[in-house]
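Appendix B. Raw example, untouched.
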Amino acid sequence: MIQILDSTLREGEQSPGVYFSPTIKLAIAQLLDRIGIDIIEVGNPAVDPEIALAITNIAKAGLKAKIGAHSLCRLKDVQKALDCDIDFLGVFLGISQKRLEQDYAISLGTAIERIVEVISYARIQQPDLIIRYTPEDTVRSPIENAIAAASAAVQAGANIISIADTTGYATPFHPQRCIARYVTTIKEALAARHLYPKIEVHCHNDRGLALANGLDAYHAGADIIDVSVMGIGERAGIIDMGTILANLIEINPEENHWQLEHLKELYCLVSQHSHIPISPHHPLVGKNAFTHYAGVHVSAIAKDESLYQSLDPQNLGIKSDIALGMQSGISAISLALKQIDRAELIGDRDLVAKILKEIKEISKRGTPINIERELPLIVESCSSINQSINEMIGIL
């Protein structure tokens, strides 16, 4: 069964301008735990003492999820992470020739020595710790470098190897650039050496392919997938949590062990405190995700919502909705009248026609029509006009 690592509190806080206080981080972590996330990556304690405090608070909160910290491959940084009472430690060091030469100015051999030293130290300090090693920018690194570093890391005590598409470079179905190739090749190479770590993937969304790459990795046998709420993170972010969970459930119903009815609350909380609005077209949780507008659609879903929905909003604790405007028809007006408890008007075809005409005219302003607030006023206006016309006809 696939495991999900949420990095909203670490990767997500790398979105420019995003800051979560320790109190908010705890609230987010509690919701993540309620949903059933396996690992919550809270941050890098070497960045700021407040991040260390947040990690420690969450680690002591009694959550079911494993609580993790992120760290450079450096002894002093790892010690700061261990001091936070964590269950999970993520260590990263790039092994591409370009990174080794231009950034670190060391050889691959020296990099591997450092990886072994740091992981061995962490394993000795905390024998039951879950340790992940990430060869940063894996998919743009020579695969033989990744295999060499991963093998040494596992032999030193790492439980997990993370294949990082750090720059969103991977492309599904490309023979050299697909992340599935890296998952299967590294997994097989390690197994040939009798090494069997879990394989994790961390997919960035620079080309809009993070979700596709995550699903590609799942099919290739990845054990853990990194996500964040709304996909927030460095640059274009990473895999969005809700969308991949929904897709995993669709691909394999046996994966359906997440409590998705808490998803909307979680997204609203993260959106509020990150100051990043949820797009109305965001899958699952966006305002329009289960809102039907075109006349043909509304007429059909009035009979059976599955005619124009492949997802059941009830599984998310959400109800389907309709919108009124230029695309609306009689069915939409009828459903909207029921929504505001004016179903008795549906039989008055003349009135309904007038309401529909008024709705279409108002829609030209280019903003949504609020059913609860505006429709009663439109009904009242049209009813008054209708009554005046009837009175005039009566006089004549």
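End of appendix B.
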